[in-house]
Amino acid sequence: MEAATPSQNRLRALLEASLAISSELSLDALLRRLVEAAAELTGARYGALGVIDPSGSQLERFLTTGIDDETHAAIGELPRGRGILGALIRDARPLRLHDLKDDQRSVGFPPNHPPMRSFLGVPILLRGVAYGNFYLTEKAGDEDFTEEDQELVTLLAGQAAVAIENARLYEASQQWSRQLESLNEVGNALATETDLDRLLDLVARRLRELLGARFVGVLLPAGDAALRFAAVAGDEGVALQGRTIPRSASKAGRVIERGRSERIDSVLDDPEVDREVSRALGARTGLWVPLVVRGRTIGVIEVHDKLGADARFSDTDLRIAETFATRAAVAVDLSQRIARDALRRVVDAQERERRRLARELHDETGQALTSILLGLRSLEEVVQGDEPREATAKLRELVVATLQDVRQLAVELRPKVLDDFGLVPALERLTETFGAQTRIDVQFEPGLADERLPGEVETALYRIVQESLTNVVKHAQAAHVSVLLTRRGGSVAAVIEDDGRGFEPGEADGGFGLEGMRERIQLLDGTLTIESAPGGGTTLVAEVPVR
Amino acid sequence: MSYAVVWEEGNGPVFAGRLELRDGRLDLIGTALGSGPTRRTLHFSELGPVWVERRRTLRLVGRPTLVAEVAAGPRLRISSLDGAGALHELAELLHASAAA
After folding, report:
1. Tens digits of per-residue pLDDT, A441-457?
2. pLDDT for residue A131 is more than 70
3. Which of A53, A92, A154, B6 is the S-S candidate for A130 at Cβ 3.0 to 4.6 Å?
């Protein structure tokens, strides 16, 4: 039998390698077969295959042949892609060297590394994209690698490129499938959760899991000028729960304004990012995604720092966050509407109950007491003797006091004048009584003449003025208060201003009842704004659109 | 816990402000016409009998009052501006706090 030529041997080795490749399922095993085949076909003592990470800057995998485990352990950490290896990453062209150490780009070998001289580097390319490199050294017989070696390895590199790309596509499709599954799961969870706090908490936690992020916060408007962290996920961000940030000086505020997402690779370099928040979190990167429902931005999701070596978020992350935000926005809007409807029902029921009680007291109890009073007067005229007359007089005084209390109670529950004559006369009476009882000078300026407003608007503004005046007594230590009703285009506003001690707006807590007032005014699509400063008095403006 | 109130000690000026119930004491914080801010603290141990007075002559700003005898001082009268039921709630809390 005739002996095979070196070319025939190489062809056979190449064919065997190709067959082996088509039978391998695992990417690592396949790449190892390829590097072994490359070393065998070129007569290299050592071979390696480096896979460049998706960022294109360093090696994510490094497979070798010819180096035993003991030597591997002695060398230590695998190369990251500097020196000659780095040169091939940056410039994806084949490279043949007689002696590695003679090349000026060489950075030498780490301790315990076997000596290597001749070198062949071949990029793993597919459609112009570099996926990695083959590195072969120490050709048998102290020879240099040849043009033919280079061609053979280029052929194997093509197969390696297809395998790596397929693996990445498969991995990406698997990941996207997992994420879609999670999105569906979250979508179902969101659809069944109507409690707003629990819903927001779910949104923050699940998005953090989906993106593998260090922090996720959900910000909702808190008044016209601020945003509040309504939910947070991530250990470092717990302290931010409930905290407010200014709309105008934060990236979240700008994203709400623009209504489109933003991805920032370095928060330090972006002047719009709220420094206080990013410092508190130690944030490096960020994603901001608006919560948009029917063209209206109702909040924003803020995400910081991808977990892992690279803290930057990818386009895919942004796409996931946007898909998630679309679903979350619908759920948040629905939950807010349910909460508002519930509040509206409670407020309506409360006012209805107050109106009934006030009417009962005024029309029934008050009338009965008036009749008793008239009867006692008649009795007083006919009764004989000092003692019975004195007892009758005492009874009459008691009935007069009780009648006064009953009328006052009826007015406090729900002033009849509000229903019968409207907001202006009701506030005239309220401010007069307030001034008489507290000795605080009150000026009322009714800017509405005799105009009647919708019932729910009149009630809301009356209650807000009432609550504001109570706040003035309790907290302001003011000498003067003014209450102004005014028309502003298609809306009506009540402005309550005092010259009291004021407060830092951020310090106004639940004790001031501001949240309740704000909720009440929001039921009518109105706004509540408060301007105050220590020593500078307080101005509260409640504005409601009137259709 | 705080209430919007007006108060008077003996025949002194009528103050408007808030009453805060604290551990072992009550604080009255407010102003009177023509005077600056004031703060009056009364420990429950200083208080004698406390009751709600409805007679017209003992009312404050025309409203029923909570009357408290003070051991070393004039009688204290307090009226609530917080609406229906607040005065009785305050009376109950004062009784409970003083007894605790």
Report:
1. 999 999 887 789 999 99
2. yes
3. A92
Rounded to a whole number of angstroms, the distance from the CA of B24 to the nearest CA of chain A is 21
How does pLDDT run across A213-238, given as a tens digit for each residue? 999 999 998 877 789 999 999 988 88
Nearest-CA distance A440 → chain B (Å): 7
Topology given in CATH for the domain delimited by A194-337: Beta-Lactamase (3.30.450)
- Nearest CB to B18: which of A408, A412, A474? A474
Residues 24-83 of B with CB under 8 A from A: 29-33, 37, 54-56, 59, 61-64, 79, 81-83
Give the separation between CA A54 and CA A58, rounded to whole angstroms: 9
ipTM of the complex model: 0.92
Start-end of CATH 3.30.450.40 domains in chain A: 6-171, 194-337
pLDDT at position B36 over 60: yes
Pairwise CB contact (< 8 Å): A439 & B33: yes
pLDDT of A366: 94
CB contact under 8 A, A437 and B81: yes
Burial state string for A287-322 with b = 16 or more CB within 10 A and e = fewer than 16? bbbbbbbeeebbbbbbbbbbeeeebbbeeebbebbb
Residues near A142 by beta carbon (within 8 Å), at least 6 away in sequence: A117, A118
The better pLDDT of the pair A69, A318 is held by: A318
Paired strand residues for A295 = none
Question: With 80 as the cut, is the pLDDT of residue A210 above it?
Answer: yes
Among B4, B32, B56, the residue with its CB nearest the CB of A470 is B4
Mean pLDDT score, A54-70: 81
CATH number for the domain spanning B60: value is 2.30.29.30
Say which of B2, B30, B59 has its CB closest to residue A477.
Answer: B30
Q: Whole-angstrom Cα distance, residue A137 to residue A141?
A: 12
Rounded to whole angstroms, the Cα distance separating A497 from A475 reads: 13
CATH class name, domain A421-547? alpha beta
Would you call B63 and A439 a contact, using CB atoms and an 8 Å cutoff? no
What integer pLDDT is reported at residue A459 of this predicted model?
Answer: 95
CATH topology for the A6-171 domain: Beta-Lactamase (3.30.450)
